[in-house]
């Protein structure tokens, strides 16, 4: 993949321009442009090169990981005028119409709105008709898990023995809802979440192509916020391009998202470590006054403590997920000063608070309650050490557990105690 991106459609005149969102304009157009799904791209390319293309594929994975884009690329690879080829030209009329989503022989169907048996019966009838101009008639069914049980049953026979000119590509975010009879007839490919580094790199290429400058840290924040979804990151970038059309800064990102920076999270964590509840509440109050969302702040703090937990158990800083490169040393210091047990207890408190906040209108009060309770936590590491020492001393003395008091017949336990006295 080249270091720069260009939009997949020519730039029209200003008068005729119809704005197309970033996620569509910079959609991958070849297997080499798929980020984070190299295993899928390699398998499909090899299948085309060796003539081992199946009749049905199932692409599964979280939203925004490239399932539908891969389906279109596979359709172009099979129907390109120069194909079948692992590298479609993207110049012929068939490739361009597939990229635009309006090719007559590549039918994209929304499984959520075409989920009944009548729609599948119509699909079966149309499948017997040969393609108009392309090599294959390809059905791309998105969110296929939304089909009804009757629709799946109607699709079974056609899916098992389709006409030689028909290919099926199913995309879904919930493969567990697909009947096993359908799964057994498809070649399944699982799409993994895309790494933050790869997302940040693609965002930098898009920003450069748009003629806008951006701070590297700002794009890294967007990439981490997207949580593995390329489309989510591009949607956030879309908002930022309108929010800051000339230069995107870290302050712009936090201002738009209502999030807190690593510096504020570090200060808040220090107050919790020092058990300074007043300072923690003051930090929360300042953050709210600056427009930070309380729920989002707790989510960020939970992710920050997750990195502290990782550092406390001895994992390398490369495994951190939520903090920037320049904040990793601070996380290590916090983890060493606090200890694993208090960190785990604090994370559990934050998780419970976030669950309660979803059903309460008093989000700030619940957040303040969580911070105060975390500051009131005893030193759990020392407590567990003390308990172990007491247990060891008890074992070394050979102490016996007290015998239970058994009442004699006709008497109560209280009477037995009185008699013993």
Describe the structure concisely:
The chain has 421 residues and is an alpha/beta fold. It has helices at residues 22-25, 38-49, 67-79, 93-100, 117-127, 149-160, 180-183, 196-209, 216-226, 230-243, 250-257, 262-273, 277-289, 294-312, 328-338, 340-357, 363-375, 380-397, 413-420, and strands at 56-61, 106-110, 137-142, 166-172, 187-191, 213-214, 247-248.
Describe, in plain words, how this protein is organized in 3D.
The protein has 421 residues and is α/β, with parallel strands linked by helices. It folds into three domains: 37-191, Rossmann fold; 196-257, Helicase, Ruva Protein, domain 3 (Orthogonal Bundle), CATH 1.10.8.60; 262-375, Zinc Finger, Delta Prime, domain 3 (Up-down Bundle), CATH 1.20.272.10. It is 53% helix and 8% strand. The chain contains 19 helices and seven strands. The strands form two sheets. A five-stranded parallel sheet has the order 2-3-4-1-5, covered by helices on one side. Strand 3, helix 6 (149-160) and strand 4 (166-172) form a beta-alpha-beta unit. Helix 14 runs antiparallel to helix 16 (340-357).
Radius of gyration: 30 Å
- Per DSSP, the total helix count is 19
Q: Largest sheet at a glance? A: 5 strands, parallel
Q: Going across the biggest sheet, name each strand in turn.
A: 2-3-4-1-5
- Strand % is 5-15%
The shape is elongated
Feature tags:
two-stranded parallel sheet; 3 domains; disordered C terminus; alpha/beta; Helicase, Ruva Protein, domain 3; Zinc Finger, Delta Prime, domain 3; 5-stranded parallel β-sheet; elongated; 421 residues; 8% strand; Rossmann fold
């Amino acid at each position: 993949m080249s270091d720069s991106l260009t939009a997949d459609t020519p730039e029209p005149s200003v008068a005729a321009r119809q704005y197309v969102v970033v996620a569509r304009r910079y959609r991958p157009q070849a297997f080499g442009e798929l980020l984070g799904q190299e295993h899928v791209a390699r398998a499909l390319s090899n299948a085309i090169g060796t003539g081992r293309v199946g009749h049905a594929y199932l692409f599964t994975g979280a939203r925004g990981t490239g399932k539908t884009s891969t389906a279109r690329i596979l359709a172009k690879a099979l129907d390109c005028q120069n194909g079948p080829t692992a590298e479609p030209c993207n110049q012929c009329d068939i490739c361009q119409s597939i990229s635009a989503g309006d090719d007559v022989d590549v039918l994209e169907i929304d499984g959520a709105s075409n989920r009944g048996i009548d729609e599948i019966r119509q699909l079966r009838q149309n499948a017997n008709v040969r393609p108009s101009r392309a090599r294959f008639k390809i059905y791309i069914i998105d969110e296929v898990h939304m089909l009804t049980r009757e629709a799946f049953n109607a699709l079974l026979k056609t899916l098992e023995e389709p006409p030689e000119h028909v290919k099926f590509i199913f995309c879904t975010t919930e493969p567990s809802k697909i009947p096993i009879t359908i799964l057994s007839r498809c070649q399944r490919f699982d799409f993994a979440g895309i790494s933050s580094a790869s997302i940040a790199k693609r965002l930098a290429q898009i920003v450069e192509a748009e003629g806008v400058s951006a701070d590297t840290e700002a794009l890294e924040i967007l990439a981490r916020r997207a949580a593995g979804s390329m489309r989510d990151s591009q949607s956030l970038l879309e908002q930022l391009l309108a929010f800051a059309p000339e230069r995107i800064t870290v302050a712009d990102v936090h201002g738009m998202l209502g999030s807190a920076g690593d510096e504020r999270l570090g200060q808040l964590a220090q107050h919790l470590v020092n058990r300074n509840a007043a300072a923690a509440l003051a930090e929360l109050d300042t953050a709210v006054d600056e427009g930070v969302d309380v729920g989002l702040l707790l989510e960020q703090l939970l992710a920050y403590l997750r990195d502290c937990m990782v550092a406390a158990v001895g994992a390398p800083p490369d495994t951190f997920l939520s903090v920037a490169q320049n904040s990793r040393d601070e996380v290590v210091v916090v983890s060493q000063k606090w200890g694993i047990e208090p960190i785990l207890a604090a994370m559990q408190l934050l998780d419970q608070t976030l669950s309660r906040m979803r059903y309460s209108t008093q989000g700030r009060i619940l957040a303040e309650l969580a911070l105060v309770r975390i500051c009131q936590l005893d030193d759990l590491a020392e407590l567990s050490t003390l308990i172990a020492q007491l247990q060891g001393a008890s074992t070394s003395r050979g102490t016996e557990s007290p015998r239970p008091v058994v009442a004699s017949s006709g008497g109560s336990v209280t009477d037995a105690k009185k008699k013993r006295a």
